[in-house]
Amino acid sequence: PATCGSFDYGFLLRISEDARRAEALNEYLSCRSYLAGYGPTQADAEAFKLLCGPPNQRHAHALRWYRHIAALLPQMNGQAADSTKGKRVQPPWSPPDGTEIPKLKLYNSLTRTKELFVPQRGNRVLWYCCGPTVYDASHMGHARSYISFDILRRILMNYFKYDVFYCMNITDIDDKIIKRARQNHLLVQYRAKKPSASQILQDVLTYRKHPVLILMLFSVFQPFQVKLAETTDPDKKQMLERLDTAVTTALTPLQGAIQSKAPDAAIQKQAEVLLEEAKDLLSDWLDSQFGSQVTENSIFSLLPKYWEGEYHKDMDALNVLPADVLTRVSEYVPEIVEFVKKILDNGYGYESNGSVYFDTAKFDASSGHSYAKLVPEAVGDQKALQEGEGDLSISADRLSEKHSQNDFALWKASKPGEPSWESPWGKGRPGWHIECSAMAGSILGESMDIHGGGFDLRFPHHDNELAQSEAYFENNHWVRYFLHTGHLTIAGCKMSKSLKNFITIKDALAKHTARQLRLAFLMHSWKDTLDYSNNTMESAIQYEKFMSEFFLNVKDILRTPTDITGQFEKWEAEEIELNKSFYEKKEAVHEALCDNIDTRSALEEMRALVSQSNAYVAARKSAKLLPNRMLLQSIAHYLTDMFKTFGAIEGTEPIGFPVGNNGQSADLESTVMPYLNVLSDFREGVRKIAREQKVTEVLQLCDVVRDDILPELGGFPTHDAEGKEISKGQTKKLRKLYEAQEKLYNEYLQTNQNGS
């Protein structure tokens, strides 16, 4: 202790018995020198005081130390008072006041305000997200939620360094799926029978124009024109009117061909046109007649399985990370049954005619519980409640089973033509809301940190989820933070098929890259309405171009030849000023992300940083000075890392967006870099000679190669380093490069009179 660094005697304080204390000290000193000529320290003195007397002789090291300190202690005490006289000592030190570091706040729909984000279990974040109901193609409304949540998830994981466990469901049992699957199945059967032209005509006319006949045969079925007349929703009405117009347009030629006794082939051709235009109308009619006869569960699984596959392809194309756990309703029916049973056991539900309903009044009246935490003002909204129950579950007999119109189904007794599973209440199927509660509860337990979904799911879906889950777990904190993404409009209008502005994800990706779509989302608040329009996408495209040009300029500067020491250049006032701005912008980006993950403000701060960097580069070049490589490289690295955090850059490139066509996974930049370097060196050599010879045309052509051809170049060779063929488009660019190089060289030869 007196000779080998500081004496850590704290362990002696934890031992109360003197004998054990001496034994522990002896063991501590057995591997340490204490008689090498150094003087004792204050720590030796403090440890000496802890002993009541000399240690036992069997503790030789401790005894030897004790005698040594005992001999020196009087000298230590005598010198203590004079130890500071005439001796310089370190001045007092105190830590800086520091500044308050911004902390992450999230807009919580449970309070409708931004709340400090505090996970329940340290750094771990349990997150459940409502997934798609898979019965049709994924559209931009889906993209609004899933890209936005992917951005939030990546930022929480990669920027704030939370350990996020992300669970999402696939709804593959639902009223919409059941009806669509039946209709598709029956239409396939109808086509397989190869009905005659006159039969197709008769069936279409029957459904469309003969309400008396239809109502006599099927009292619960409305013919198309009655349905059209009674529809009040403007979007749905417009969609039905468009369908009616299309069917009418296809009817006339077929009727004319039959009346004129046209050739069979011509009549059949017109019949096929009518069948295609009237398929939605006919499938609805077929479902009304024969839907109850569709009983095989496998028929109801084929449709969602197909569309789930398409959904995953779309998410992959959008660079949306897959969930850590994906749950399907069809795989969790036993857990759902047990979940419903416990709600009944806890007294918050009741059985009625083979169905089970949640008793909202009893739950709301219970101590510690509250119904409709998210949108309490929506309680009693019958339209919203009926949409939550599903089209197949709002018949008069079903509604009469409830104690209150505000109650909702936990388990539905299956009707003929619906899939069914065994349960204590008879054959049936899960209600919509119970699916998420049972699956999330199975994976995440009695409470989660974050629950996410679209804005339109707040009531009744999420409010019902909260109620039944807290009824099951008997708590009032099933979800700590509820995040809801904003609506998506199309050029200012609600997206709907009736307005012909229904845009699938595949449609969107055919016009814009996944990065451009993500940038458009990043440039808007995740919780507010986003308008998908030409102006929105043009802003994203211009932002991408602005950033891309900066990255290309930095790469060009970094390609300037230098030795290993030459890359470290002296900082002048301009570099100090830019670096100061760099750190200010980083702080501003951090503040924006802490403020409800405000990516819009973050991107604006990043844009401002690039503008200042561009101004710095321009000023240096104007003064015929090289920009500071390391400073620009640091800025470019930071911006690249942020775009990777946002999911806007894939790959391992240290700087900028990957070079090549959208979706190319090959490291094309590494493949073509040798060619770029050769051309860059060639260009610099020609420019040097052209300046000496004052040949401005050659200088201009060099600038064209630098400013126009190289930035646009995706690649040169026909095969990459692994021998894989590069696209024809890239090969054309290669030829463009060679042609430009040849033209440049020929121009030089023509202007250099001596031809050297």
Q: Strand portion, in percent?
A: 5-15%
Number of helices: 28
Radius of gyration, CA atoms, in whole angstroms:
37 Å
Quaternary structure classification: single chain
Helix percentage range: 40-55%
Residue runs with pLDDT of under 50 for 5 or more positions: 1-5, 210-221, 714-722
Shape type = flat
Strands of the widest sheet, in order across it, are 5-4-3-10-11
Describe the structure.
- There is one protein chain.
- By secondary structure, the protein is α/β, with parallel strands linked by helices.
- The chain is 55% helix and 9% strand.
- The chain has a 5-stranded parallel beta sheet, sandwiched between helices. The protein has a 4-stranded antiparallel beta sheet with strand order 6-7-8-9. It has a 3-stranded mixed beta sheet with strand order 13-12-14.
- Strand 10 (448-454), helix 19 and strand 11 (479-485) form a beta-alpha-beta unit.
- Helix 14 packs across helix 18 (432-444).
- The longest helix is centred in the N-terminal third of the chain and has 26 residues, at 234-259.
- The N and C termini lie far apart (80 Å).
- Mean pLDDT is 86; it is low at 1-5, 210-221 and 714-722.
Please tag this protein with its features.
single chain; 756 residues; alpha/beta; 5-stranded parallel beta sheet; 4-stranded antiparallel beta sheet; 14 strands; disordered N terminus; nucleotide-binding
Topology:
Blueprint: H1 10-13, H2 18-29, H3 42-50, H4 60-80, E1 105-108, E2 113-116, E3 124-129, H5 140-159, E4 163-170, H6 175-192, H7 197-209, H8 211-217, H9 224-230, H10 234-259, H11 264-277, H12 279-290, H13 299-317, E5 325-328, H14 333-345, E6 349-352, E7 355-358, H15 360-365, H16 382-389, H17 396-400, E8 408-413, E9 428-430, H18 432-444, E10 448-454, H19 458-473, E11 479-485, E12 488-490, E13 493-494, H20 505-511, H21 514-522, E14 530-532, H22 534-558, H23 573-594, H24 599-622, H25 629-645, H26 668-693, H27 696-712, H28 728-751
Parallel strand pairs: 3-4, 3-10, 4-5, 10-11, 12-14
Antiparallel strand pairs: 1-2, 6-7, 7-8, 8-9, 12-13
Helix pairs in contact: 2-4, 6-12, 6-13, 7-11, 10-11, 11-12, 14-18, 18-19, 21-22, 22-25, 23-24, 26-27, 27-28
